[in-house]
Amino acid sequence: MEKKSLEFEVADDHEVWVHDSSVDHRGRSPSRATTGSWKAAMFIILIEFSERLSYFGIATSLMIYLTKVLQEEMKVAAKNANYWMSVTTLMPLLGGFLADGYLGRFSTVVVSTAVYLLGLTVLATAQLAPGLRPDNSPRVHEALFFVAIYLVSVGTGGHKPALESFGADQFDEAHAAERVQKMSFFNWWNCALCSGVLLGVTAIVYAQERLGWGAATVVLAAVMAASLAVFLAGRRSYRYRVPEGSPLTPLLQVLVAAFRKRRLPLPADAAELYEVNPPQSGKKRLLCHTYQLRFLDRAVIVEPGAGEDAFGPWRLSTVTQVEETKLVLAMVPIWVCTLPFGMAVAQVSTFFIKQGSVMDRRLGPHFELPPASIFALSAIAMIATVAAYDKALVPYLRRATGGQRGISILRRIGIGMAFAIAGMGVAAAVERWRLLSSGSALPSVLWLVPQFALMGVADGFALVGLQEYFYEQVPDGMRSLGIGLYLSVIGAGSFLSSLVITAADRASSSGGRAGWFAKDLNRSRLDLFYWLLACIGAVNLAFYALVATKCSYKQTVRAGRVGDDKSAAAGFVAA
């Protein structure tokens, strides 16, 4: 009876208090009833909605602004847009590092949002002040414009990784109900994200055309400021992670320890490898040993006869530290394999928008669709995909496979990459048809619906999958950096897209020939560029499938595996 009573007390305690590494706003163990879960996540999702509203209100109109207001050539504008998107999506690597190691995720969100607001304020000033407008001071206006949008980049660099990981931190993976809620969190996070995108590329773009660029920017700044106030109002309901210094230090310690003991033989029994006991690990989750990258296991061997020095952090690591290092190293080929997908995504907000600007955008006798609003098609497709995936596909697959996730993360990413390849192929075919019919009446912008829809479906599978993969598979102490790695796929993809544009332009225009990227879109050959991206993506998808079969998911000692399958081979090929 006493034993049963003790078990009930432990179970009740687990239901009342959260026993992971989080704390409440006073630094105590969080109460499950008053903190975290959806009641806290909704505050966080709201500020993400406003940030995406602002970002896409700027990003989708960027090509139009650069070519029409700043009078840049199309290829120069495309390069500037791609460089800006690259910086914006690579900055989260630095922001995630600072959030995880030093500032904390909550503080990083507040500081980066302030920088974001500063960028919007500078942009509104440059667009509204009579002496700074492009018709009066074109050089000054251009300088202030780029300063403003790169301040937005810096703000996004801290905001995106810290906020998304902070939102996911509100769910306790050791609690069965919250673990299932967390699997849905990334889906509904992206629904809110796409809702912000949808409003940004419709209402905000409409305001830019009818009320002026400056008035629309003032609206964006006001919405961002209001959402920051709401975010701060939810402070008491959040669960916080205390930063513990550089998240990269334990990884370096494993590499150094393994190198120092590179001549030691590996033990036949994994039980001989060093690990702290669960009571000593505190709230830190312990990971199971795996047999991948076994050379790193030497970092966990206790050197015989080395004395107390053998237990120093740079000479001896734990199994958990080594497994975390293995997971990070295993992410490198996955990250590389997703770069062609990032290149395809970069076209949606650049050349896709430019295509729409030279087509018939009339929807009825009295309404003409703004070019940047065409991006709404992609956002709608992503919202529909994520909703159908979470509410229809996943429940069916859970019943069919018996797994909580329904479909493995890496397979979900691979499906999204396949849709992106199809999107590039359709875009090439539509663009070729548009060029052949350029001498007659303008084709309707509705011909772009299939390519935008395919890219929206690709985002619904691949982008959400990348978020889950890089958040869940990194060590617990570097999850903001994990979100930064996911975002860097898009940033590096945009940068590679710029390099491919430059290389293709030089190759196609050599010998005095007309290049692929003329100032007049009707004299360009975007269709060939799209086919090039589709071919790169197809070859890469085959390589990705090979790499994915070699990867393993994180497996914890106390909570069991995170993920449905021991290896991605089971998840990618058989799921």
TrEMBL record:
Q: Which GO terms describe its biological process?
A: oligopeptide transport
Per UniProt, the keywords (alphabetical) are: Membrane, Transmembrane, Transmembrane helix
Q: Which InterPro entries does this one have?
A: MFS_trans_sf, POT_fam, PTR2_symporter_CS
Query: What is the residue range of the signal peptide feature?
Result: none
Q: Which Pfam families match?
A: PTR2
Q: Which GO terms describe its cellular component?
A: membrane
Q: Which GO terms describe its molecular function?
A: transmembrane transporter activity
> For this UniProt entry, which segments traverse the membrane?
53-70, 82-103, 109-129, 188-207, 213-233, 327-352, 372-389, 409-430, 450-471, 483-504, 528-548
SUPFAM superfamilies to which the protein is assigned, alphabetical: MFS general substrate transporter (SSF103473)
User: Where does this protein reside within or beyond the cell?
Assistant: Membrane
Where this protein primarily resides, as one coarse class? membrane
Is the Transmembrane keyword given for this protein? yes
Give the family per the record. Answer: Belongs to the major facilitator superfamily. Proton-dependent oligopeptide transporter (POT/PTR) (TC 2.A.17) family.
State the name under which the record lists this protein: NPF family transporter
Source organism per UniProt:
Miscanthus lutarioriparius
